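Anyone able to model this chain together with 3-isopropylmalic acid?
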Amino acid sequence: MTAQPAKLLVLPGDGIGPEVMREVGRVITWLEKNRGLAFDITEDLVGGASLAEYGEPIRNEVIEKARAADAVLFGSVGDPRWGHVGFEKRPEVAILKLRQELELFANLRPAKVFDALVDASTLKPDVVRGLDIMIVRETVGGIYFGDPRGIETLPDGTRRGINTEVYTTPEIERVARVAFEMARKRSGHVCSVEKCNVMESGLLWKEVVTDLHAREFADVKLTHMLADNCAMQLVRNPRQFDVIVTGNLFGDILSDLASMLTGSLGMLPSATLGAVQSNGKSAALYEPIHGSAPDIAGHGIANPIAQILSFAMLLRYSLNLQEEAKMVEEAVSRVLESGLRTADIMSDGMARVGTSVMGEAIVRELDKLQK
Ligand SMILES: NC(=O)c1ccc[n+]([C@@H]2O[C@H](COP(=O)([O-])OP(=O)(O)OC[C@H]3O[C@@H](n4cnc5c(N)ncnc54)[C@H](O)[C@@H]3O)[C@@H](O)[C@H]2O)c1
Ligand SMILES: CC(C)[C@H](C(=O)O)[C@@H](O)C(=O)O
Ligand SMILES: [Mg+2]
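re: yes, here you go
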């Protein structure tokens, strides 16, 4: 690690966000005490928490702090109490704006099944044992951001909601490049997913990925699949996949689906990597794929593992702390082997624990790994 402490911006957000982020705090304290690492941490409000304090889901000041940081650790945003504030001001704007402003275009969502959790998966143990899929989701384009958009009222009083899927050649190419490069470090297969049978943006997607493959990545195996079939194939035979590259909306849906192969939405971390910015830094944001889970917020029962594994991805990708990243992942694995389970991954014969006991147990395993 460099002599300078790593500058982290921590944005816990809403609902279970702050609850699971607290457990990352334990891991950070442990790393500082036991591995000689130094972190320069700034924390701020986003989402409903920011709306309550400042009247907006994210302040420009926070976006600038994110730009200046070595990495951003994000919790989750979304709060039913802010349903009335209007579309532009909903809490979710915080994460959308961060992705867009920092050009965080490649969202890596690994769905990896821990051996101890094969019974927690919705699929049969033999189908998911050892499963390790990487979904590369484009996150600054597609139907999330395309124009025109909005809700309009026609002369006869009918209302019309409009969103538009738009992808340009460079947007497709840069995310496909990330996927191909990733596949080279893994088992060498990329499956590109779109709906070219009904969408022009999907047709262009397929053409651009195919051209890039022929030009630069002929050593990688490339296959194509329609998104609806992909959803079915992920449940039927997930082992056929290694890296999946897809657009914003399909990636959102397919990664939630893939999380259940691993046992729970509470298990899936993510890293979103961006383009080099004008300040010379490449932005990176780390967050679990789950949301603020209002149904369980405040009960102390949320699974903190997705947030902790997101921090492990931060150690690996942004700080190049490979050993520490592996230690955190190994500590999670050992805690699961020991039989501790939060409610979402509970199965017969295991010990049910809450968020903080799970976090403490992971830190105790780090202690053992250090000895
Ligand atoms: N990146 C983000 O900030 C993000 C991601 C997804 C959803 N959201 C927002 O979160 C809010 C709630 O959305 P939702 O309910 O559709 O999705 P959600 O991901 O919050 O929850 C879906 C289900 O999974 C469970 N769950 C999620 N994370 C869990 C964890 N760590 N441990 C145990 N159980 C967990 C929840 O209890 C719920 O039953 C919405 O406002 C949505 O927009 C935000
Ligand atoms: C909260 C929402 C904007 C977000 C998305 O749709 O991208 C979430 O579902 C995610 O998966 O990160
Ligand atoms: Mg989602």
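The radius of gyration is 20 Å.
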